[in-house]
Amino acid sequence: MKDFDQAIAFLGEWGLFQKIMFFSLCLSMISNSFGLGIVFVYDTPKHQCFIPQSNLTQEWLEAVVPVSVVNRVEERSRCSRYRLDVVMNLSAQGFAPGDVNLTELLQEPCVDGWSYSKDIYQSTIVTEFDLVCHDEWKQPFTASVLYAGITCGSLLTGELSDKYGRKPILFATMAVQTIFTLIQVFANSWILFTILLFFNGLGQMSNYVAALVLGAEILIGHARVVYSSAAVNSSFALGYMMLPLLGYCLRDWRSLLLGMALPGLLYIPMWWLIPESPRWLLYQGKVQEAEAIFRKAARWNKVQAPQYIFDQYMVPEKEKAQEKKNYSTLDLFKISKLRVTTLTLFLIWFNMFISYYALSLNTSQLHTNPFLSCFIFALVEIPAYVCSWLALRYLPRRTSIITTLCLGSVPLFLLELVPHDLSTVTLIMEMLAKFFFACGTSLLFTYTSELYPTPLRTTATGTCSMVSRIGSCFAPFLLKLSVFLKYLPHITMASMALLAASATLFIPESFGLPLPETFEQMATRKRIQCLCDRNKEPNRTLVPAEEPL
Fold it and tell me: Where, by residue number, does the polypeptide cross the bilayer (predicted)?
């Protein structure tokens, strides 16, 4: 009995069909990174209390806002000013700021609102809805709402994809992301914006998981390795690098959202180009539909398809339909080995992604030019994903994950030793940490999809992605720990990374093994791997397999 990859080997690995699927699915992932555009949408420009039109002299206008020292730098107060009536009275009596002791003057909050610098942005939601001072907590909360939506979307779409198919969920989530981003442009309050942002999050990254699994189940051999590692992540990084360009050209937050939403309309023609997952169709007993996809692919690749492509699946469809079962997230915990693997992966995903997103959200604070800083952090992901592809090609999965986590934690621990005035060194250290964590996130998606059988593959990947988004929900608040100690967030991230590295030792290896189709194949994976280590040609004699994933 041939396995799936052997059954479709007649197509070859890199024909016209595979090329179209490869690049179409990669193109669908570019907009996934637009969720990181929140760093521009809710960034906080320099601001101070607004001083209404008055008869104050220029000297008093400059002195009415108190000056304090923050991190050895003098800054004007952002949330208070000297009482305006007192200042106006002193000015009317002919006193100059140098004639009085300003520190003894009473202060008041910004009762007339704030004036914001427009050196970088024309507007953000912070300037639009005054999310500063007593409402400053709304800034990290806004980002957390987005990631809460992504969390819920990852959970729901994983199960829906396994139940209704990869293709409809892929396009449904892309539609949700595009539609709600467009509606956000017209939000006239912070509450409405936040509610729409949550629904926007339902589509963010969910289509990434659906497209990742769909491509992994269509492609085989080296094409699948390149797609699942370097290609999908490089597509994400390409969209990430487009963000600072959009932000630089569109300095108003509404225009920026519009610029991020419109590319979603380009995905509509792909509905007629991208097929359903043949593996999923076979599991549903729809053999003829699965074969039809590859007969069409054979015509595109100009090869001859055999009479029966999936002969081992040639059973009555009614009988197959009776045997199939709809699995849910709960099935990840029913079997002992599944439960241990799943809980361990939860810990690894949570710790990896909280570090990744905390570093990503901190980009606007690392350089006076947030667009340049964001571009550099996006650019560093390209070599990271190339390294992840090489690791997937030649190295065991567990070794690769542990290495990225440990190396990513080192520069975060060392940041405390960097002098405050060496901002360039700080930027380089955070870039190094981001490099290793980006590499690790790429490895995790592929590793997780290799561990689980077809009935639970998307559910498992989606659930793990959901757990990672819970971590990303905490990332904005993790950065706020800097008020207690400047690098406390980085020390926390590094410690969590080392904990995740230790946990990686408790999950099975998948390097050099085929994707499991059933629970039985997954259960015997460890035993087969041990036998493979003693055999000169393990993938050819013990299990039907392909090139290392």
Answer: 20-42, 169-199, 230-250, 256-274, 340-358, 370-392, 399-418, 424-447, 487-507
